Amino acid sequence: MKPSLDKLQKFFRLEAEREYDNRAVLGGLENMLPSWQAEARADNLDEVLVNTVTTQLRDYAQLNGGQRSEALKGLWLRIQHATGMNENGIGAPQTKATRRKAKLQIKKPVPVLQRVKVKAHPYKPAKVRIPKRNKTKAEPAALDARVTSLNGVGPVNAARLEKLGIQSLRDMLYHFPRRYDDYSHLATIRHLEYGQEVTVIGKVKSVANRSAGKGRKNLTEVIIDDDSAALRAAWFNQPWMAKNFHEGDQLVLSGTVEQFQGRFTLNNPGWELLDEEQLHTNRIVPVYPLTAQMGQRWLRVLMSKVVSYWAPRIPELLPTGLIQSAQLLPLSEALQQAHFPDSQELLKAARQRLAFDELFLLQLAVLQQKKAWQGIAARRFEAPSDWLQAQVAQLPFQLTKAQSNVLRDLIKDLASGRPMNRLLQGDVGSGKTVMAALCMALVAREGAQSALMAPTSILAEQHYATLQELWVRPGSALHPEELRLIVGATPQEEKQAIRHGLQSGAIKIVVGTHALIEDPILFSELEMVVIDEQHRFGVGQRAALRAKGNSPHLLVMTATPIPRSLALTLYGDLNLSVIDELPPGRQEVPTHILLPHERQRAYGLIRKEVEAGRQAFIIYPLIEENENNQVKAAVQEYKRLQTEIFPNMKVVLLHGRLSAEEKDESMGRFRDGKAQILVSTTVIEVGIDVPNATVMLIEGANRFGLAQLHQLRGRVGRGGEKSYCILIPEHDEAAENERLKALTETNDGFLLAERDLEQRGPGQFLGRQQSGFSDLRLASLSDARLIDKARRHAEELLAGDPDLSQPEHHALAAALQETWSDGQGDLS
User: Across the chain, which distance is largest between two alpha carbons, in Å?
Assistant: First the structure.
C-alpha cells in the first residue's frame, strides 16, 4: 500500500475506534489535508481520487456520528475500487488467520495444459507490453497461478524463471521472444548453399561419438540422407546427444550451413524427430531471453504448453468495433502468433496488435488525466488588453509570431476558470522565461502568488535576474520586495524572512530550486507554478510544489526539443505550445568536426577568442578516466589544459560530483568573467547563460546524442559576437558519425530531435518521472504512425464513453487501473 493511503487508513481506523468524534487528527480530519495531498501526489495517486478525498473530508466536521461512519466507509471502498486494493475494511486489520487463508486461496488447482491447434486466418498487415492487469470477470483466475503448477517446474526452475520476471502463467504469456530464427523453408541437401539458414529432413544413416581434437573433448556426429545427398550434423562436447538418434530415424534439422573439410555441415543445429510436432525446426522458431542454467529448448517447450492452452482462453481487451476499425488481430491470436508465428506476415501483425494495446492504454491514461484536470476549477486571471500591451511594450525585444501565439495560449488558459496544464517547448534562447514572466505578472496584478522552480541555483539566479530586469523598476509590475529568490545557499535569516513574506502574501513571485519544496514554505495564495527544465524533476517533486496551492495553474518548460510523436505520448496529458523561432538578434552557431589530431586548431581558436576578451567551454563525456584510459575525462584534462595548453589563462572545473557550493562557485566565476575557460561535463547542458562565451569545444562528441549536443551548442551564440561549436570525436572513424554530421547541417533543434529519436530511441528524452516507459516490451516510442493511431482511437472511444463504464469497456477500465494506478500516467 502506498504511504499516503496507509496513513489515511490509520486515520480512518483511529477515527472508528474513537466513535467518529473527528479527533483522530488534532483539529479534525480536515487539518491533515494539506500535508496528505502533497504525499498523495508524491505517491502519484490519481488526481480525481485526491480531489474526492479532499472534498469529502472537508465536509466531515458538519456530519453527525452515523453520517461520518458511512462517509468514511464509503470513501474507503471508493479508494479500494480506484486503486485495486484488496478489500480490508476500516477498523478491521488483517490477522494471521486471514493472511493464511489468503495464501491458501492462491493455490487453486490449475487445469491440465493441453495443446490446442488454432488455425491463423489471413490478415492484412496493419508494435509494447500488454501490461499486467486486474482480472475481468471473464478472465480465468488460474492465469495468476504460480508457474510451479506446471509439470516440470519445481522450486529450482521457478526461481530461474523469476529472474526473467516470470512468476505466473500470465507472465509467461507476455514473456516475448527476443528474436526469431526462420527455418520455415525446407531445402533438399543437394541444393544447399553456404551461409543459408535452412531446414532439412533426412534419414539417419549413422551416429558416432568421437574425439574432436584440437582441445575439444568430444564430437557427436550424425549423417543424414534425403535421397538427394548426404549431410553431416555435429554437436560439440555433448556426448549425451548420441542417445537421441538411431539409424533409420527420420530427423528434422535446422541451422546455418557451414563447411568442414570441403563438405557442408550443420553445427549444433536445432533438431526434432519427424513424428514429433515441430517446435524447434521447420518453422519460424522463437528465441527467448534466458537466464543462467536455463536451456532455450526447455523454455520453448514450456512456453508452447502455456501459449497453446491459455492464449485461446484470454478474453479480448478491446471492443469488437475498435478491433475492426483499427484493423487489428484478435488478442488471443496475436499472443499465439507472437510466440509461435505461422508466417512473417502474421508475426508482424501480432506484434503490431500487442504494441497497439500498450500505446492505446497509455493514451487512455494521459487523456483521462487531462480530462480530470479540465474538470477542476481554478481562479480566473483575465488580462485587460491595455495592461497586456503596456507590459509587452516594456520588453527588451519585439515578440516574434511564435511568441505571440504562445502568449495567446497562456492568457487564454489563465482566464478559462480551469487550471492551466501546459508544456511550453522552445529551443535555447527562444524566450520561454519571458512568456512565463508575463503570466506571473498577471497573477501578481490580482494579488496572488507564483512560484518558479529551476533545477540549479545558477539557473534560478538567471530567472530571478530576468524577472528583476523586466518587472522591478519604476512603473513596472512589481515592487522589489515582492520578488524574491530562495536557493540552498540563501542565509537562514533571509530564508526566514522569505517564508514569512510568502505566508503573509507580501511576496508575489518566488524563484528557487528544490528549496521551495524542501523548506517548510507556506503560501498565502499560490495560484501559478512554473517548472523549468521539467524533466530534471520527478513527479513527486512537482506535485509537492503544486500541492502548496489550491489547483494552481501549471506551466512546465523545456529547452529540449521533443518530437511530436513523443510529446503526444510522454506529455499527452498536457496542452502543448511550441516556440519554434529564435528572437531577432540570435544567430546560428556554425558547427565543425575536427579529427583528434587537429585538436590544436581548436585550442588556437580558443586562444584567439580569449585574447579578444571572450570565453570558451570545453566539454568532456566523463568526469575521470576509465580503466582503459581511452576516453578523455574532465578532471585529468583540466589539469593538463591549465598547466600545458592555457597556462596564462584562468581555467575552472565543473562536474557532477562537486558539491552544490563548488558548482555554484565555478559557474559563478565563469559567468562573472573571472575565468576564461570552463572545463566541464554535461552538467552545464542546462543552467548557465554567459553571453560572452563564443566557443563550445566538445571532446568525445560521438558519445553524445543529437539533443544533448544541440543543448550544449546552445550555450554559445547568446551574445552579439560570432560563435563556434567544435566537435572532436574519439577517433578518426567516429568523425563519420551520422549524429555529428547532422549537427553541422542544421541548427533546427526539432529536426535534430526527430533524427535522434530515429537513431537512438527515446531514452535521452525520458526524465525521472517517465521511467515507467522503459518497461514497454514491444512498442517503440519512435513509431509516430502507431502512436498517432492509438491516440486517435483513444480520443474516439473516450468521446463516447469518458468513464469507460459501458460493459464492452470493462476490461479496458480494469487494465487501465492496474497499469497506471501507481501514477506513471501523472506526467505533468
Answer: 102
Q: Is the pTM of this model over 0.70?
A: no
Task: Locate 346 and state its grid cell.
Answer: 502474421
pLDDT tens digits, one per residue of 451-468: 999 888 878 888 898 898
Q: What CA–CA distances, in Å, run from 680 to 308, 414, 658, 669, 698? A: 56, 40, 11, 14, 10
Q: Going edge to edge, which strands form the sheet with 591-593?
A: 591-593, 724-728, 693-699, 615-619, 677-680, 651-654
CATH topology of domain 591-746: Rossmann fold (3.40.50)
- Percent with pLDDT over 70 in the chain: 83
Of the options 3.30.565.10, 3.30.10.20, 3.40.50.300, 3.40.50.720, the CATH number for the domain spanning 385-416+431-558: 3.40.50.300
d(CA 303, CA 428): 51
In angstroms, the CA 48 to CA 535 distance is: 24
The Cα angle at residue 354 between residues 350 and 356, in degrees rounded to 5: 115
- Centroid of chain to Cα 215: 49
What lies within 8 Å, CB to CB, of 75 at 6+ separation is: 12, 52, 53, 56, 57
The pair phi, psi for residue 678, each rounded to 5°, is: -110, 115
Which CATH superfamily is 185-282 part of?
Nucleic acid-binding proteins (2.40.50.140)
Domain with CATH 3.40.50.300 in the chain: 385-416+431-558, 591-746
| Portions of the chain given CATH number 2.40.50.140 | 185-282
Per residue in 759-800, pLDDT tens?
Answer: 666 555 554 444 445 457 888 776 778 888 998 999 999 999
114-168 pLDDT, tens digit each: 333 333 333 232 322 333 444 444 455 578 888 888 888 889 999 999 999 899 9
- In this structure, what DSSP letter does residue 789 have? H
Who contacts 130 (Cβ-Cβ below 8 Å, separation ≥6)?
174, 317, 331, 354, 357, 358, 815
Q: Residue 349, Cβ neighbours under 10 Å: how many?
A: 24
